[in-house]
Amino acid sequence: MAVQAQQYLDENLCFPLAYSQEMGGFIDIQPSTVIPQQRNQRFIINSQPSSSDDLASTAFSHFLVSQIEKQRNDMDEFIVLQNERLRVTIQEKRKQQIALLIKTLEAKTLFLLRQKEEDIAKESRKKAELEFCLKRMEMEIQTWQRIATEKEAMVLSLNTKIEQVMREKVCSSSTPAQDAESCCDLSPSTNPSEEREKIACKACNSRVSCVLILPCRHLCCCEACEALLDSCPVCKSVKMASMEVYMS
């Protein structure tokens, strides 16, 4: 390849190239005169050059060396400059990529933070609702416990009164009619019709009385009529409560 390049330059530029080991390449040796007729032939250097030719050749060699050195220095400076520009460009690109990445991460982080804040707010609302429901249930439980206690006390009181009524077998009314109609009068009767009349419902006179009216304590109506009564059919006192009595 080097021989072909040298031959090409010799044939087209009309002067040969001399290889210099110190400079690391070919050195152009331009003669003082060029003969057009010998353009396609190689120049032949005389074996005994003159002194003027030696000086010209030496000066030209020094000039060529200085030009090559200058071009080499310019090339080195150009390479250094290009490397610096490339380094700055790469650094700017890297900064832009890092800034874009940071911006993307910040946006994603803000989105996740907002989502977490919304989740925390939802959980807080659910917790508040559950606490409110728990307090309401506790209040309802306390209310039902109080109502149950009152009902138990009422049942105990009514049971006690019924036991007293059944034990005493004494009617609170002094008239014979009230004695006959009161549950306290349980004296035996010899007449079956009178006995049926005593235990018959005072509202319908057909069914057996099985409901005790309170507070007058008259056993005077059946279960069906009790729901329709607002007062005792015997003494006309206001009905406050009632209780079904099972008699053997």
UniProtKB/TrEMBL annotation:
PROSITE patterns cross-referenced by the UniProt entry: ZF_RING_2
Keyword Transmembrane (UniProt): no
Pfam families associated with the record: zf-C3HC4_3
Domain RING-type: 201-236
Gene3D superfamilies the record matches: Zinc/RING finger domain, C3HC4 (zinc finger)
Metal-binding found in the keyword field: yes
InterPro entries, per the entry: Znf_RING, Znf_RING/FYVE/PHD
Protein known as: Putative BOI-related E3 ubiquitin-protein ligase 2
Species per Swiss-Prot/TrEMBL record: Cinnamomum micranthum f. kanehirae
